[in-house]
Design goal:
With about 260 residues, this protein is of the alpha/beta class. The chain has 10 helices and 8 strands. The longest helix is centred in the middle third of the chain and has 18 residues, at about 105-120.
Length: about 260
């Protein structure tokens, strides 16, 4: 059904105030499909609201992984493609995103144009999203030829976010890069961006504990994404740590409802 996942997200934000998304990377050079499916089950049990599937360096075809994850869980599966190889018809939706602060037109519109026919013809729900790289940016910035925003200059990404909203995009994603140190995107940047736009702000990269996640929500983030934390911890502790993080996020979000 067209718009089903977007409706789910907006209803979740209206009722809970904030959402937690888990990012899983089905890279066969890093982990097996079996392990990714186990992670998906654990994050759902821990209370995560959706599973994003993708990464900056995907090797091979991800169809099997996306299909198996979708069969194993009830929460939505959303593609987070690092390139055209990250598109699969088995997902519930795709973040159709443009890396607005890339220096290479390929990452702003080129890859999107190449992927668009498949997305259109297969009927995958596309959710338009601005993708903004914040220093350090890590692998995603390097692959995407991005000029990451300086962490102490929040008004610059705010201008890009306003432009994204005027373009009609539904979400703005502030990304510090997978495994970024220092607690992810600075709270001041999240606060500045969110106060200038009415569409939801997603943030990810470097949110490796409950404190940083709650701080992001308190600063104005509607959705916080965790990937590296899940990869390192969720199977070892059976999702216990993630459950506490999600609980903290929901408590912070409830104050905004």
């Amino acid at each position: 059904m067209s718009g089903k996942v977007w409706k789910y997200i907006t209803e979740k934000l209206a009722s809970d105030g904030a959402c937690h998304f888990s990012l899983l990377d089905p890279d066969p050079l890093g982990t097996s499909i079996e392990n990714v499916v186990k992670q998906a089950k654990l994050v759902e049990k821990a209370g995560s609201d959706a599973v994003m599937i993708g990464g900056s360096t995907i090797f091979g075809v991800i169809d099997d992984a996306v299909a198996q994850i979708g069969e194993a869980i009830d929460i939505p599966t959303i593609l987070f493609p690092g390139n055209i190889t990250g598109v699969s018809e088995h997902a519930d939706a795709v973040f159709f995103m443009s890396l607005l602060n890339s220096t290479n037109p390929y990452w702003i519109i080129g890859a999107q144009a190449l992927a668009a026919p498949k997305i259109k013809l297969t009927g995958i729900e596309a959710i338009p999203m601005a993708y903004l790289m914040v220093a350090p940016g890590k692998t995603a910035a390097w692959v995407g030829d991005a000029k990451p925003f300086l962490r102490d200059k929040p008004k610059i990404p705010a201008m890009y976010a306003i432009a994204a909203e005027l373009f009609g995009m539904k979400l703005v994603y502030l990304e510090a890069g997978s495994g970024a140190e220092g607690g992810g995107v600075p709270p001041e940047m999240i606060s500045t961006v969110s106060q200038y736009i009415e569409i939801p702000v997603i943030t990810g990269g470097g949110f490796n504990d409950k404190e940083s996640v709650v701080t992001a929500v308190n600063a104005g983030a509607s959705i916080v994404v965790q990937g590296t934390y899940i990869e390192k911890h969720v199977q070892n502790d059976k999702g216990a740590g993630l459950s506490k993080i999600v609980k903290g996020l929901k408590e912070a979000g409830a104050k905004r409802v």
